[in-house]
Specification:
The complex is a heterodimer of chains A (214) and B (428). By secondary structure, chain A is mainly alpha-helical. Chain A is built from six helices and no strands. Chain B folds into two domains: 188 residues, Glycoside hydrolase 144 (GH144) (Glycosyltransferase); 150 residues, no CATH class. Chain B is 44% helix and 8% strand. Chain B is built from 15 helices and 15 strands. In chain B, a hairpin with a 3-residue loop joins strand 7 and strand 8. The chains are: A mainly alpha (214), B mainly alpha (428). Chains A and B meet through helix 2 of A and loops of B.
């Protein structure tokens, strides 16, 4: 069994649920708007075109032309096949092609700007959402660099709405504690009485656990 | 004594009831048939373009003009003019205008007109084919009109259009006449190779003054025989009643012997078989009954279909086209008149309008056609005219030089003409 395997799907349930919603809701909105746009666009176009009396008559006439041909030529009966489907609708398609090309072009034009707007919105949403994580991560990184450089006065300051506030608080508490310990040791080292200074430092160091204690 | 007995026997034989024999319609029936004929001609007056004279395929809005319907219109206008239902000048001018447009503007290929043309511009529409049968129907109408106006511009124009057709080209090197040609795919892969409405086409093609097809083309097409309910029929593949009627609207086949076949009798038998077939389904479909029959190509609840009966195709769904029974009036007068009266009296409200009978109906689906079809009105009109006026269309058409040439070349022999309906009169 892989020891690194995660056994719990929800490590931080509130956070994960929140992010699920953050990702799902825009996608859901995108799907709804797209489907709605396509549905309204195409079917609106089709219904509009077919509501046009002239077009409706044209389509009926095209259909009649095919029926006339079928009635007259009576081609040998064949099993259902894609080819026969295409052949049966050949003449209709000639006429339909013009109609549907116009409908699709109109629909595409309508959808294009909506899709661009959606892309901008999604892009902005993604940046906004990722910023809530990326910002704190950046702050953590800078703080760790400060610590590495020996600056224990550093603290993590996150914006309101950023993710990681509890971790930052705990880390800041830890930093305060470490800063206080190191400050006490530093102050003790400044004691002119060397023995007393050493005793105070030892006392402080006794409270902490390090690799040297193993 | 022997002569006397022979005379009595002949009288008794003539007195036997027979559907193909002459039938005496009552005065009431004649009035109804005349009313239908007069109403039907209105289709060709109202639904022909005022400028070009080209007739719409259907009364449905947006319908293009059909050259077959235009041919029927020429015939109908000439007949209506002869009866005084239209002023002579009006009928004459409309026919001249139409023929001029067809000669000068209508798109064609080697004289074969495209099946569907724009009624205003006479340009090809709907990627339709240059159609051999529809051109033949148009020319039949034009040549018939010419017979009503001999020695006039109508005769001149009709003959010019007829002579322009290259019939031999449409054979495409085969033994049969091709159904059509399109600029996109050239000759269609279908030929007039078996019995149906082709007889008018082949007759005009064989008898043509220029570029005729060889007389052998008449004998080449198949004459498949079938039997249904005791009716032996040379049948068409669709089994549609119109296939047994169209050629007979113009050509008088009575007594003509073709390889031992009598096509007038054949159409009578086909009509009886068609009626018997629908009657056998009377329990299944409400539309079928003793006086409600006629399976033929028509509009229906599911679109235009080649409805038909045995022997031949048996596509049917309970849809009856009134024109089918009506147009068999010269073959089965009594049965057809009974059907006409039934349709008119029982369904008139839904089925009859300003232009005669509408396309079709289907009681099982509570469906009534709300349109008239040009060629349906055309065949109805001509068959009524033949019936009511002692085969006047046949007499005029059989007088054409082209028809005489066809008879001579194919060695078909015409018998003495018989009255179509007793008490028939040239004046109605």
């Amino acid at each position: 069994m892989n020891p690194n395997r995660r056994r719990r799907f929800f490590i931080n349930k509130p956070l994960q649920v929140r992010y699920m919603l953050v990702v799902t809701l825009p996608l859901l909105a995108l799907c709804c708007i797209t489907i709605f746009g396509i549905y309204i666009g195409i079917w609106g176009g089709v219904l509009g075109a077919f509501s046009n009396e002239e077009m409706r008559n044209d389509m009926l006439t095209a259909s009649r032309m095919v029926e006339y041909e079928q009635a007259r030529y009576q081609p040998a009966k064949q099993g259902p096949s894609l080819l026969s489907l295409f052949r049966e609708t050949e003449k209709l398609s000639l006429r339909q092609r013009e109609v549907f090309r116009e409908i699709l072009n109109d629909t595409n034009r309508d959808l294009a700007w909506k899709l661009i707007l959606l892309l901008i919105l999604i892009g902005w949403g993604t940046i906004y959402a990722s910023h809530k994580i990326a910002g704190p991560l950046y702050r953590f990184s800078r703080t760790f660099e400060d610590i590495e450089k020996g600056n224990y006065r550093t603290r993590i300051f996150l914006r309101k709405g950023d993710e990681g506030h509890p971790v930052a608080k705990e880390l800041n508490d830890a930093l305060v504690s470490t800063d206080r310990l190191l400050s006490d040791i530093k102050n003790a080292s400044r004691d002119p009485d060397t023995l007393q200074a050493l005793s105070r430092i030892k006392e402080k160091l006794e409270t902490i656990k390090t690799s040297a204690d193993v | 004594m022997f002569r006397h007995l022979s005379f009595v026997f002949l009288c008794a034989l003539l007195a036997l009831p027979s559907q193909s024999s002459a039938y005496t319609p009552s005065q009431e029936e004649r009035s109804l048939l005349t009313k239908i004929e007069q109403d039907t001609v209105q289709y060709f007056i109202r639904l022909s373009d005022k400028t070009t004279g080209m007739t719409r395929d259907s009364s449905r809005p947006g319908s293009p003009s059909s050259i077959a319907a235009t041919g029927f219109a020429l015939a109908a206008l000439a007949v209506a003019g002869s009866h005084g239902w239209l002023p002579h000048e009006y009928a004459y001018n409309r026919i001249v205008t139409t023929l001029k447009v067809m000669k000068e503007k209508a798109e064609h290929q080697n004289g074969f007109f495209y099946h569907f043309l724009d009624a205003r511009t006479a340009r090809r529409v709907w990627s339709s084919e240059a159609s051999s049968i529809d051109t033949a129907l148009f020319l039949a109408g034009a040549l018939l009109a010419a017979q009503y106006y001999p020695g006039t511009e109508i005769e001149l124009l009709a003959n010019e259009l007829y002579e322009r057709v290259d019939w031999k080209w449409m054979m495409n090197g085969s033994r049969f006449i091709c159904m059509g040609w399109t600029p996109e795919s050239k000759f269609l892969p279908y030929y007039w190779d078996s019995y149906n409405e082709l007889m008018l086409l082949v007759a005009l093609a064989v008898g043509a003054p220029k570029n005729p097809v060889p007389p052998e083309a008449w004998d080449a097409w198949l004459r498949p025989e079938g039997n249904y309910n005791g009716h032996r029929v040379i049948y068409s593949s669709s089994g549609s009643l119109f296939t047994y009627q169209y050629s007979h609207a113009f050509i008088d086949f009575r007594g003509l012997k073709d390889q031992g076949n009598d096509f007038f009798t054949n159409s009578t038998e086909a009509t009886l078989a068609n009626r018997a077939f629908s009657l056998s389904f009377a329990g299944k479909y409400k539309s079928y009954s003793e006086n409600s029959w006629g399976l033929s190509a028509s509009v229906g609840p599911g679109g235009y279909k080649a409805y038909g009966a045995l022997p031949g195709g048996t596509l049917h769904d309970g849809t009856i086209a009134p024109y089918a029974a009506l147009s068999s009036i010269v073959f089965t007068p009594e049965l057809s008149i009974n059907a006409i009266k039934f349709f008119f009296n029982n369904y008139g409200e839904n089925l009859y309008g300003n232009f005669g009978f509408k396309g079709a109906f289907n009681l099982d689906k509570s469906w009534w056609a709300d349109e008239y079809i040009g060629i349906d009105q055309g065949i109805s009109f001509l068959m009524l005219e033949n019936f009511l006026n002692d085969g006047i269309i046949w007499k005029k058409f059989m007088g054409l030089e082209a028809v005489k040439r066809w008879l001579e070349l194919t060695k078909l022999q015409a018998a003495e003409s018989e009255p179509v309906s007793l008490n028939s009169s040239s004046e109605v």
